[in-house]
Structure formats: C-alpha cells, structure tokens
Design goal:
The complex is a heterodimer. Chain A is of the alpha+beta class. Helices cover 16% and strands 40% of the residues of chain A. Chain B contains 23 helices and 29 strands. Classes of the chains: A alpha+beta, B alpha+beta. At the A-B interface, β4, β5 and α5 of A face α19, β17 and β18 of B.
Chain lengths: 171, 735
C-alpha cells in the first residue's frame, strides 16, 4: 500500500494526520497507529494453549518472553485459516502488557487525516462496536481503525464477549 | 514523574517534582533505618541472653537509634524524632552503666523498636508520619522515661514497684496483639519493599557488565563471519561459555544468605516464648548459605509457621521439661545447608515430640482416616497425616497456632516452589522439620512430553516414575472403576488421567502404545497418560500472561532446545482439575520394608550351592583369564589395578579349571571390599553369577542348624561367610 493523496497543506498539519499500518483480515482492511506497533514478526509457528479463551491464538517466543497472541479472525468470528497469518507485536502505552495480534496479512503505512474518521454505524453489532474505532474513507474502500488498548488479552477477557469465540470458532 | 499508584498525595500535585526528590531521600532513609532496626532487634535479643558483656551491643543499639534521630530531624519527621529521642536518652543511661539490663528494660526497648517500625511503615506507605497515633507515642515515651529516670532517682520506693507490676500485667496482655501487629506490618512492608529492591555487590555487577560486553563482541563476530566461516565452531563455543558464565553470575547476584531470613526469628521466638510461657534458646548454623531471593521470600511464611509450631506445640513448659529430666530451657535449632543440588532448612526442637497416638486419634476424629486404617499405620505414615488439610494437634486453640491451618499450608507453599517437606519426630526428644528447596526457581529440570500434538513440560520434582503401556496391553492393564480408569501399579490402583482428553485436544491416532508418567504433588498421586516422551531438559521458566495464567493449568512456558514453545504443566492443578484427591502416602512403607531386607548377589560355586553375598560389599564382577591368577605360598593371588588381591576359592573352582588345562579359559571373580574400611579388598572365585535380588535373612536357630541362611526369591540360600572382619585377619597372616 502506498500513502494516499498527500497534498502539501496536509503535510503541514502533521498533528492532524496519523500514520496507520494497514492490515487485512477476511474481506476487510484495518489500520493500527504505527506508534503502537513494536514489531511485525511475520508468519510464526504458534503454540496453541489448551483451555484458553477462544480469542487466544497461542503463544510465541519473543525476545526472551512468551508472548500471548490474539487471533483477530477469532474476534471477528471468522473461521480459522491456516494458509494466512502474520504476527504483530503491540505495546500498550504503559508497556504493562505486550501482546501479539494475528491477522491475515500486513499492508503498508498509510497517512490519514484524523478529522476524516467516521464513527461506527449505529447498526453495528456489540462485538464489532467494541473492536472498531470508526473508519477512514479511502480511495479503494474503507479502512477500519483499531485501538490496540481494546485488543489487549486481559481487556478482551474482561468484556466476556469473546470467551466463547465467534461463529466458526470454538473448541 | 509519579506513577498513578502513589495517588494518596493528590492534594500536593503542584509540588510533584520536589516531592519526588524527597521521596528518594526518604526511601533511602527508610531502607537504612530498617537495616538499623533489624540490627537493633538482633542485638536486643542477644543482650537479653548475655546481659553481662553488654558494652558493644548497647553501643550498636544506641547508634541505630541515634542515626534515626539525627536523620529524622533533618527530614522533618517530628513524631519519629521525638520517639527516637526518648529511646536514645534511655539508651544513653544504659550505655553509661547507670541502668542494669532487666527483662523489663528489654521489653521497653523492643516496644520502642516496634513503635519506630510502625512509624517507618506509615511513612513508606503514605509519605507522611501521621499524627493520629501520637497518644500511643506519649505513653511509650513516658514508659521509657520511667524506665530511665524514676527507678533511678527514687531508688525503688513502693509506688514505682506497683507501676512496674501494672506494666508487667499489662505487658503480656498487650504483647501478643502488639507483638503481632507491628511485626506483621513491618514484615508486610518489608517484603513488598524487599521484592522490588536488591542489594548487590558492585563487583558482581561489574562482572555481569563485562560478560555482557563479551556477549556483544561475540555476537558481532558471529554476524560478521557467518555460519560458513571456519572459526564458527569456536565462536559458538565461546558464546556457550559466556552464556554459562553470565547465567552463573546473575544467579549469584540473586543469591541471598539465609541469615537474612533467620535474623527475624530471635525476636519472634522471644515474644512467642513469653506469650506461651516457654523458655527457649535459639541457635543458628549455616546462615551464610545462599538461596535465590524469590525462594527466600517463598519459604519465609512456611518457616515462620514451623518456628511458631515448634515453640508453641513442640517445646514444653519449663516445669514439664524439668519433670522430663531435660534442662528448663528449650532449644530451637535452625540449620541451613546444601545437599545434592538443593538447600535444606531444618527447624529442630528438643521438645516433647509428636505423640503418634494423639495424631491418630485426631485423624480419626476429623474423619481423615478410619480406625482400621489407623491401626495399620506405621509411625512414619502417621506423621504424614499432619500434612493433611484441616489437621492440627494443638489441644487448645491459642493465639499463636492451632487454628487448623497448619502444616498442609506449609507443605503446599514449599511444594509450590518445587521443594519438599520432611518431618521426623521422637516422643520425648523433639521434632525436626526439613524444608528442602531447589537452589533457584528460574531453571528447573523437566521432562518434555507430547500429547495431542503439543509439547508439555513436567517438572522432574513431581515425577515419580514412568510406565510404558504397549497398545496391545491396553485392554488388559487399564481397568475401570465406574467411569474412571485405573492402573494397577504394584498392586495399588492408580487413577489415570488422559492429558489430551483433559485439555480437550484431539488425540492422535492409536500408536504403538503410550506412556504413563506417575506424578505426585501436594499428596495427590496419579498417572498422567501422554503419547510420547521427549528428552529431559533443563528448562528456563517464562511467565505467562494474566489471561493464560487464569486457566490455572499451566505454571509457565519455556522455549525448548529446538526453538519451539512448551507449556509447563502445573501438576497439582492438573490433579485438582481431573478430580484426583490427596491420598495417604504408603510408599514410605515399601521403602521401609526394603530397608529391612537386603539385596544379595546370588552366585554358584562348584558345589552347586546357591550362595549369597550382600550386594553392598561387591564392587565389581570381573572375568579374568585363568593364567592371570598367580600363586604364592600356596595361596591364589590376583594383580588387580595395582593391588594384590587375595583370592578365596571355597568351591575349588580354580582347581577344577586347572584340571581342564585350557590356557584361554577365564574365571569369574567377585571383587569385594568392605565399604567401611575399603582397605580389605579380596576376590572371591565363583562358578557363575546367578542373580541380584532382594532377600530376607533368616534368624539363626536350631531348625536350620545355626547356619546363615536367607530366603532369596523364596529359595534357601547360604550366606557367604567369612567376609567383612575376617578378611583383614587372613590378609595379615599372609603378609
């Protein structure tokens, strides 16, 4: 993905713009603030954790720690797809909880105008309302913004919405 | 920046940067003062024991209080300063020899210590010393002043005597509560503080830095040279040694002397002894033994509990002790030492010991065992009952112990860190409790197993044995009681737990067979069925995230040698999940029997008679060419490893061989040595070795003609006579 439509005026309003890393899961495109992404690990062999909540994709070694990863497909209620998978390492602001996010593939960095963010439609179901932060209208479709804070495994466990897994998931 | 946790002081938000500076200073002051007070505590208990050579001890106590007083004035903690001042004043008199060391004085000083600690704890918690408790202070301060001045000036007229009495009466009433609460409070904060900070020798830190530097250099070289380079193996070796060194140094940095933990006990024992009306002396050894900091924290509570138990239940009252013919003063011994890769901490008292009948009666009363079971129990087994939940033998519930939470918690806590607990007791002579803990928590030996296509690590400490069950035997050996499956292990039914089923994993297609790991944790014993065993490995334990910890079945994860992850199974939690209940330990009995029996090496000499030798004395079985046997003065000798061995040939095997006149023939010789002396080695010529087996020595009586006989595998066997003591004699004759 190349950066989209950057005019000189927009460049001056740096504070107003944000750079997102685009990524794909299922049919949709998502974006996470690049500042929150610590590393893109790419495809990794995940060790499953039996009896774990459905949204946990497994654990992966990362810099001397054991990283818990969240399966974004499971969060969306999509069936598992063994052919795709890319692990992102996300840090929350305080650095309290580092975790991994498994998505289908990573695109590139896109710069967007913050004021272009469109709120979630009111017809969205509760799970997606929790996950999505709104959408940016891009030339080639919508880019849904995600908040890493809300994807933290402990937060997801607290909400209780994702314990049982989505439509195609479940042990 | 101040973290959100420190919000109690939100009212002075604007001065945050300043406050931070003060915080650092205060933190340092608190740490220093706590050290000083710890020292003071030790000195005080020592002073009470040896009131005569008090000079140095009093000097030390004085310095501790004086330092606190000086620093508080500087930091502006008035309340603390006032109290410290009163204490210093009293100590000053003591130092100048104007006061004698009395029990009352020591008690007063200990209360001063508690008062100072309480204020320090308050400062650490809230950042301020508080004012609300100033009344307590003034009571304490007048108390101290009375101890100092009044007694001296009025030369003990009747009034102070009364006040002393009052104080004494009030003292025991107050002291349990008082002694517990401030001590508990300081212990609590001490541990929270202690968890976060660690004092480390700069030397060790420098060494670590050096090693890290070395590590970086090695990495750089590796990156530059690449895998194909000729010096790659050498670099890999270097990396290996640097890693090993670094690991060792870091371990060393984490090691803390056990003495740090022991230091808390003299005071505790003193207070307890007074509350319970005991006379107890405490002795230490091995204080310098190092133990990982986290482990030290982990065994603090179990050890405290054990010490309390010893003082409260173990050691009798002075009157009872004198009646039993023991010195009135009981002795509590705390010992720490290394033993085969673990640290053993021993709490031994010379008290009444544990009365087995009482244990059994209690166990029956509590419904832990039936009367029949109790009758059959050995002493050892009965002692193990103490570790069952809900067991306490204290006749009365005291403030100190006997609330029914007892040894089971001690055992659970110690087992949680991979340790074990042993108990030994002799009625009338005392009780010894041994806590055995590994040197470190971070690296544990484990067995890696596979189940449902995944790897799991089982800590070796919980592993008792492994059983392989071939697929064709499955139907035969796996039996059912209702819905649960059991395995007959040495004629006892062992519950079986299928790991893949328990974890909801897809079980693999029926293979050649499966393995059962017999595990034991917190008194639960069960067989965990897994598909395959991988190598035993020393694994580095990595913590799991909160979400995964919540599952409760895994105590961590580890990266295996091949780079994949394996989850570490929490054996006790798995047992609980599978519904395995703690069972009585009967294994001990088996061990006991084996000890009574002896292992024998059974052989045959020419007379075709089964003869046995205790296995302990047989060092080697050698096959020696017949021509190497030499003769001197009519005796057969063998040159064996630079030593001349006398050969005994009671069965005339050698004669028989000579008659064959076969140069290439060889003869079997048992090389025997007395394990005690090692000097008297000898060789025994035998026809052939038959077996190594356990047997029972029969008692000599007229029916077997005063012969030394043993039953080995239900067959009569003669015991080879004339070893041990006689050998030395024979040998000397020859020489």
């Amino acid at each position: 993905m190349k950066a989209v439509a950057q005019s000189p005026e927009q460049m001056q309003e740096e504070a107003e713009s944000a750079s997102l890393c685009s990524m794909f899961a299922g049919e949709e495109t998502f974006g996470i603030d690049t500042a929150k992404i610590r590393e893109v690990l790419g495809r990794r062999e995940l060790e499953r954790v039996p009896m774990a909540p459905a949204f946990v994709a497994g654990v992966v070694p990362y810099r001397g720690d054991v990283l818990t990863t969240v399966s974004f497909r499971a969060l969306l209620g999509l069936p598992e797809n063994a052919d795709v998978g890319c692990v992102l390492v996300l840090d929350d602001d305080g650095g309290h909880e580092r975790f991994g996010l498994v998505i289908d593939a990573v695109g590139g960095v896109v710069t967007v105008q913050r004021n272009m963010l469109e709120a979630n439609p009111c017809t969205l179901d509760a799970k997606c309302k929790w996950l999505f932060d709104g959408a940016y209208k891009m030339e080639n479709g919508l880019l849904i913004q995600l908040d890493p804070q809300k994807l933290r495994p402990s937060r997801l466990a607290e909400t209780g919405m994702f314990r049982q897994g989505g439509a195609g998931e479940g042990l | 920046m101040v973290t959100a946790d420190k919000s109690p002081r939100t009212n002075d938000l604007p001065t945050i940067p300043d406050k931070r500076d003060v915080d650092d200073l205060t933190q340092e002051f608190i740490a220093e003062s706590q050290d000083g007070l710890d020292r003071m505590e030790r000195c005080l208990t020592e002073l009470e024991a040896r009131p005569h050579d008090s000079q140095q001890l009093v000097g030390e106590i004085f310095r501790a209080v004086h330092t606190i007083k000086g620093t508080t004035g500087f930091l502006g903690f008035n309340r603390l300063e006032k109290l410290a001042h009163a204490g210093e004043h009293l100590l000053g008199s003591l130092r100048e020899g104007r006061l004698a060391v009395t029990e009352e004085l020591i008690s007063g000083l200990l209360r001063l210590l508690d008062g100072l600690r309480a204020i320090l704890a308050l400062i650490e918690e809230t950042g301020g010393e508080g004012t609300r408790a100033s009344d307590e202070d003034s009571v304490l301060i007048t108390d101290l002043a009375r101890l100092n001045g009044d007694d001296l000036e009025t030369a003990r007229p009747s009034a102070p005597v009364i006040s002393t009495k009052v104080a004494e009466e009030a003292d025991p009433a107050m002291s349990p509560a008082e002694a517990m609460t401030p001590a508990a409070a300081t212990q609590g904060t001490g541990s929270s503080n202690g968890d976060k900070t660690l004092r480390i020798d700069v030397e060790v830190l420098n060494r670590m830095m050096n090693l890290v530097g070395e590590l970086v250099l090695t990495r750089n070289q590796m990156l530059q040279s690449g895998v194909e380079a000729t010096n790659f193996p050498e670099l890999a070796r270097r990396l290996d040694s640097v890693t090993a060194d670094l690991r060792e140094t870091v371990m060393q940095a984490r090691m803390q002397p056990v003495g740090n933990l022991f230091g808390k006990f003299p005071r505790m024992v003193r207070d307890l002894a007074r509350t319970c009306g005991r006379d107890v002396r405490i002795e230490f050894s091995g204080q310098e033994t190092g133990l990982d900091k986290s482990l030290l924290e982990a065994i603090k509570d179990p050890l405290t509990h054990a010490v309390r138990n010893s003082v409260d239940h173990g050691i009798e009252s002075p009157a009872d002790r004198v009646l039993a013919g023991k010195p009135a003063e009981g002795c509590l011994r705390l010992r720490a030492f290394h033993q085969s890769g673990s640290v053993v901490i021993e709490v031994a008292d010379d008290g009444a010991g544990i009365a087995i009948e009482r244990v059994l009666a209690k166990a029956i009363e509590r419904g832990l065992v039936t009367t029949e079971q109790a009758k059959e129990m050995t002493e050892r087994e009965a002692l193990q009952l103490i570790f069952l939940p809900g067991f306490s033998t204290a006749a009365a519930v005291t403030t100190v112990s006997g609330r029914g939470v007892g040894m089971d918690v001690v055992r659970a806590n110690v087992e949680k860190v991979g340790g074990s607990v042993e108990l030994e007791s002799k009625v009338g002579f005392g009780t010894t409790l041994r806590l055995r803990v590994p040197l470190t928590l971070a690296i544990v030996p484990a067995l890696v197993v596979r189940s449902g296509g995944q790897s799991f690590a089982l800590p070796q400490t919980t592993l008792v044995e492994l059983v392989y069950i071939p697929a064709r035997d499955k139907e035969k050996v796996v039996e059912r009681v209702g819905a649960s499956e059991v395995y007959r292990l040495r004629e006892r039914l062992l519950p079986m737990v299928w790991l893949d089923r328990l974890l909801g994993l897809k079980s693999a297609a029926e293979a050649h067979g499966f393995y059962m790991a017999v595990l034991e944790a917190e008194g639960c014993r069960y067989g965990l069925v897994v598909e395959d065993l991988l190598a035993p490995e020393e694994i580095v334990v990595k913590p799991l995230s909160a979400v995964l910890r919540e599952i409760g079945l895994f105590s961590g994860a580890t990266v295996l040698g091949n780079g994949t992850l394996a989850l570490i199974l929490d054996i006790a939690a798995t047992a609980a999940r599978a519904g395995v209940k703690p069972v009585m330990e009967e294994e001990e009995q088996i061990v006991e029997i084996q000890r009574e029996e002896a292992s024998f090496l059974v052989f045959e000499d020419r007379a075709r008679e089964r003869t046995a030798l205790p296995l302990g004395v047989v060092e080697r079985i050698e096959s020696v060419p017949i021509n190497r046997v030499e003769y001197a003065n009519g005796r057969a000798l063998l040159q064996y490893r630079g030593e001349l061995l006398q050969l005994r040939d009671d069965g005339h095997v050698l004669d028989g061989m000579e008659m064959l006149e076969d140069e290439n023939a060889s003869v079997t010789i048992l090389i025997c040595g007395d394990p005690e002396t090692k000097a008297a080695r000898m060789g025994i010529v035998v026809r052939r070795v038959l077996d190594v087996s356990d047997g029972t020595v029969l008692e000599k009586d007229t029916t077997n003609g005063e012969m030394d006989l043993a039953l080995v595998k239900d067959r009569l066997t003669t015991i080879f006579r004339g070893f041990a003591g006689e050998v030395g004699k024979n040998w000397r004759e020859v020489a």
